Amino acid sequence: MTRIAFTASDRPEAQEGLERLVNRYGATPVEEADVIVALGGDGFMLECFHDHMATKLPIYGMNRGSVGFLMNDYSEAGLLDRIAAAERAVIHPLRMTATDVNGKSHVALAINEVSLLRQTRQAAKLRISIDGKLRLGELSCDGALVSTPAGSTAYNLSAHGPIIPLDARVLALTPISAFRPRRWRGALLAHTAKVTFEILEAGKRPVSAVADNFEVRDVLEVQIAEDRKVSLNMLFDEGRSLEERVLAEQFST
Prior knowledge:
The chain is α+β, with helices and mostly antiparallel strands and about 250 residues long.
């Protein structure tokens, strides 16, 4: 029998669902569980992965939030059977190493994307290198982001970046409101690529770097690369895999 550790966001509907599921299936401590069931929205799902990354437990999400692209439908019935039949998606996060103006290094993992964002009214100016080779000497913009395939339907899509199939082994490099060069729409990179952003005129045009929900202010340089040593397992109901959702998103109107 599957041992389930339940967790939920602080939304009332998530807390209500948590109480009902625990009463029906019981609760197991995370350290003794086979799977984590997370109740909330996509943001809470990402929080769960960050909080429980060291356990390497698969997470089965159920939507009790506002956005549920990464979640399964909420239902109290047949949960054990649904988990047993679930399809698994393996996600490799991005590792961000950001150096701030004081020379301090900050390291964080991002499941969706690493984004660079201007902190003031003035546009950011970024220099972009790929695998140590300069590719764009100056990008004037509101910011830029590097997205995983799993995160390509989130902020990346809102910034007009491409949707990436999970097995494509590529990353999306997408500008946010690019001013110059005006026609640059970003690039698709091999998943092995190492992306380096240098912030130009950092004192006058400060930039923050955000790895999912971890923010570093006033950065000078940000390095981003996929971390293949870390594997995150996400469970989806049979026939509603993450691969299917990403594909369907490309045909949505």
